[in-house]
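Consider the following input, taken from an annotated entry for RrF2 family transcriptional regulator (Sporosarcina soli).
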Amino acid sequence: MQYSVGVEYALHCLVYLIDAPSEESVGIKDLAEFQGLSETFLSKVFGKLSKAGIVSSIPGVKGGYKLAKSPEDISFWDVVEAVEGPKPIFQCKNIKDNGYLYREGCCSAPSFCTINLVMLEAEEKMRNYLRGQTLAWLNEELERTLPKQIREDTRKYFRKSNI
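Applying the prediction step yields:
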């Protein structure tokens, strides 16, 4: 199981949007430059975040993106689902139905695949955990763990880019 790097970039960029004043937005160019990646790639990620209602797109020369909801209302799972889509990680192919006993007609009673049930339960536990981790929590955690100068420099970078 692996999430794309788009999830990581999305979470980092969304944290940068938390401190943006509500009447301002942050441009995709600035977000991409700060992260060291292509604008095209980040635009695709932000298109998905916008479609999911996590960010709002502001048109115009000074346009960009801002959070569409409060950081308390945006969970890690919201971001994962927006970027990766709703498809389950485990894709049961019902291979048991092709097994020897089913082919020979010895076992015809319908049954649930125990493997699928376990995998779906594990995914649900992971989703629930990620639903409990919000952007607000991440912001507080970064405030607590990162050197204050890094946080200040980050905020200055995005304020400067909007002037």
